[in-house]
């Protein structure tokens, strides 16, 4: 990503547009984080969603949170069915859209399952990640075009998965440069390791880098002392800890991965294809479908509570987007982890692929940190991940349906589970199932 100095940093009253605000629970958490900063309690929050009921619920929840955290009434909250109205004059755009919602997610699991393909989360790599990306790209292109026209100096903060593919597509298809993908996996990995090791999280220093959901904790220290030997001893003494994919990967690769075992199992060929490994490592196949149902239940609870005048829970989530907005607005320097194009940041990963690295944020914007070379074994896995991403992005940019099949062939978990003809058949069935959600050039079925 090329950083640019904006004409002037936003004042203490920035306009923040939420695209996909109907993801109400996530919107609530981000707003609680945002309004926890006194300097941002005069912000204009513009909410957009294409679902009228969800937009109304998000508006009501946002008003409730503002009344609790900024009772002086300086926060301006508006709701917009039309996206460009929400974006007009925005300083920051937060993208949390999920194209196709629950029905498309079920398709991502149920069709591959008929082929014997196991997935746990299905939102980053694999067949689920490929088709989640392909149905999201048209939205990203039109969103980027709108931003270029109505708020060209805005920072686009993307939370929508598959993160790495979406950021790569956004920057290549739209030409936007103020784009950063945000994920909480690095923060919560270190937080949970600190808790596991019995040290205060605020006293832990760390450095991580790699790709989203498959970055690596390169350094982990407490007051200057390496915590990895302490982690090794704990793992050695506790056989139940060893029954987790990320711990298994750490023991074999030497660096702890920054995503859950459920996620991590899908990015490599060693686990989900083997029933005994699923049992040994306690992998919940299809887990994301339960998460989707829980999210819908949480949304319905918020909707009903607002309708009945009942209180809502107002809790911060430690997400990066509000921290970035605060730093750019006030000039307060801080470090976050961002997903950005690899322009000289990690030497042994492909140039232009989306990498996750530490980023300095201040009034000048989000400034990625050069990491150098990753450990060879970590880079080898990341390169497989980025190669598949590149083929998916290429399919959309070049209107090439063959690249979809080639991406599935290159995906480690898919290739471990299916012969090549079945991979092509599966892609044809996924294209048929997702239908109009894909750009027209990619709706072709190709057979073998």
Describe, in short, the structure shown.
With 448 residues, this protein is an alpha/beta fold.
General description of the model:
With 448 residues, the protein is α/β, with parallel strands linked by helices. It is built from 17 helices and 13 strands.
Q: Any descriptors?
A:
single chain, about 450 residues, alpha/beta, 6-stranded parallel β-sheet, 4-stranded antiparallel β-sheet, 17 helices, globular
Give me the secondary-structure topology:
Elements: E1 15-19, H1 24-35, E2 44-48, H2 52-69, E3 76-80, H3 83-87, E4 92-95, H4 101-114, H5 126-150, E5 155-158, H6 163-174, E6 179-181, H7 185-197, E7 204-211, E8 214-222, E9 225-226, H8 228-237, H9 245-253, E10 256-257, H10 261-264, H11 275-280, H12 287-307, H13 320-330, E11 334-341, E12 354-362, E13 365-368, H14 376-397, H15 401-410, H16 412-417, H17 420-434
Helix pairs in contact: 1-2, 1-13, 2-12, 4-5, 4-17, 5-6, 5-14, 6-14, 14-15, 15-17
**Major beta-sheet overview:** 6 strands, parallel
Structural class determined from secondary elements = alpha/beta
Question: Globular, elongated, flat, extended or rod-shaped: what is the shape?
Answer: globular
Portion in beta strands: 15-25%
Q: Helix tally? A: 17
In which order are the strands of the major sheet placed? 3-2-1-4-5-6
